[in-house]
């Protein structure tokens, strides 16, 4: 059982895996999350761990995450290792009685998701998944607009993730490590669709391309995909993903109802945009660290609040599982060129 914490205490958090996103979480915890403090860092790349620790004034640095889990000052952990490694880390963290903030996607298979849920239920600790869009001010405004009833009956939702071009290398490039485009990229959108609609996916069709990065074909992944989801509330949703967005990091959502629509703009603050090919020169040319600056901070503040005040996370392990399930259904639909019903057997 995770030990109860007094609400006046700051949550002591250790970060496991300080690559691209782990670094963002470490920085936020060290400086911008008022109800938590960064107390330890672990990364199998000790040099990387040392560098992030010294940048953020952290004394406790471990090469082995099991040592971090034995640290008494660590109440909770952020798990930001590559996805194929999360299961062993999460199970060990549950056994150590630590609360868990787990980066998305939580796992590569539904069996693994179920093991996460069982381990965290047994430990009685909190488990939040890092779908930060639920903490982003613009997505929260769309959600408020829907919940206020302003658009009437929901007909259509759309959500997209289009990343700027990257080298086919590292964590994202191998679907055995990342889960591939449907789990690693579109699971953000699948979570957005479930959250905005308040409804579950009933069936999915999907297709994909490797026009920009043909080398992904051999690896069994795609650079561009489209997924259409029929929801239990009767609405349709479409999700697209593209890893070659030459005009910038393009993250948007919209919802159309019988009484109106809510559109989210492409940029963080501005309302009009000129789309040019040279994405570096665009006014909105930033990537996820800048686009979701407030959301990454807010999700950790929310997580610390969940632990300190014993409330339910905004993104639960079951939400994490549901996003993985839609991703797996989309992959199957694409591979077999047929509609796939949910829940998956
Ligand atoms: N929420 C978001 O917007 C967002 C953005 C980027 C990445 N992510 C997710 O975060 C996860 C990590 O992605 P990344 O891009 O930061 O990867 P990364 O490769 O940059 O970092 C992973 C880190 O984990 C470390 N690591 C590997 N094995 C380890 C072990 N056994 N113990 C401790 N550390 C270990 C590596 O040394 C590396 O520093 C992925 O699941 C990814 O999908 C989420």
Care to describe what's here?
The chain folds into 2 domains: 115 residues, Rossmann fold; 180 residues, Dihydrodipicolinate Reductase, domain 2 (2-Layer Sandwich), CATH 3.30.360.10. Helix content is 37%, strand content 21%. The protein is built from 13 helices and 13 strands. The strands form 2 sheets. Strands 12-11-7-10-9-8-13 form a 7-stranded mixed beta sheet. The protein has a 6-stranded parallel beta sheet with strand order 3-2-1-4-5-6, with helices on both faces. Helix 2 links the parallel strand 2 and strand 3. The longest helix has 20 residues. About 2% of the residues have low confidence. Bound molecules: nicotinamide-adenine-dinucleotide. The site of nicotinamide-adenine-dinucleotide has 26 residues, from helix 1. The site of nicotinamide-adenine-dinucleotide (NAD) has 26 residues, from helix 1.
Structure keywords:
345 residues, alpha/beta, Dihydrodipicolinate Reductase, domain 2, 2 domains, seven-stranded mixed β-sheet, 13 helices, globular, binds nicotinamide-adenine-dinucleotide
Which fold does the CATH topology of the largest domain refer to? Dihydrodipicolinate Reductase, domain 2
CATH architecture of the largest domain: 2-Layer Sandwich
- Number of E-type strands: 13
Structurally, the number of domains stands at 2
- SSE sequence, one letter per element: EHEHEHEHEHEHEHHHEHEEEEHHHE
Briefly, what CATH class of the largest domain? Alpha Beta
The average pLDDT is 91
- Helical content stands at 25-40%
């Amino acid at each position: 059982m995770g030990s109860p914490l007094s609400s006046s205490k700051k949550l002591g958090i250790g970060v496991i895996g300080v690559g691209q996103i782990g670094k963002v979480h470490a920085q936020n915890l060290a400086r911008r999350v008022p109800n938590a403090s960064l107390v330890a860092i672990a990364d199998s790349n000790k040099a990387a761990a040392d560098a992030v620790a010294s940048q953020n004034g952290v004394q406790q640095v471990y090469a082995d995450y099991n040592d971090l889990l034995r640290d008494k000052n660590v109440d909770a952990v952020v798990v930001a290792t590559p996805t194929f490694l999360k299961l062993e880390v999460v199970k060990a963290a549950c056994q150590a009685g630590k609360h868990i903030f787990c980066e998305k996607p939580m796992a590569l298979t539904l069996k693994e998701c179920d093991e996460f849920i069982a381990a965290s239920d047994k430990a009685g600790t909190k488990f939040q998944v890092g779908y930060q869009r639920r903490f982003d001010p613009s997505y929260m405004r769309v959600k408020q607009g829907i919940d206020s009833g302003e658009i009437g009956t929901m007909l259509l939702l759309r959500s997209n993730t289009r990343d700027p071009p990257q080298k086919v290398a590292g964590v994202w490039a191998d679907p055995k490590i990342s889960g591939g485009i449907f789990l690693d990229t579109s699971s953000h959108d699948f979570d957005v669709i479930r959250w905005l609609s308040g409804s579950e996916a009933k069936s999915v069709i999907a297709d994909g391309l490797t026009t920009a990065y043909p080398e992904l074909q051999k690896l069994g992944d795609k650079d561009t995909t489209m997924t259409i989801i029929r929801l239990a509330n009767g609405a349709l949703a479409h999700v697209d993903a593209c890893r070659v967005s030459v005009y910038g990091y393009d993250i948007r959502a919209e919802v159309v109802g019988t009484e109106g629509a809510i559109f989210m703009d492409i940029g963080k603050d501005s309302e009009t945009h000129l789309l040019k090919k040279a994405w570096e020169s665009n006014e909105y040319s930033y990537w996820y660290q800048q686009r979701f600056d407030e959301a990454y901070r807010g999700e950790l503040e929310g997580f610390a609040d969940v632990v300190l005040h014993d409330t339910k996370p905004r993104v639960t392990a079951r939400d994490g599982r549901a996003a993985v399930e839609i991703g797996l259904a989309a992959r199957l639909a694409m591979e077999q060129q047929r509609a796939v019903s949910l829940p998956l057997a």
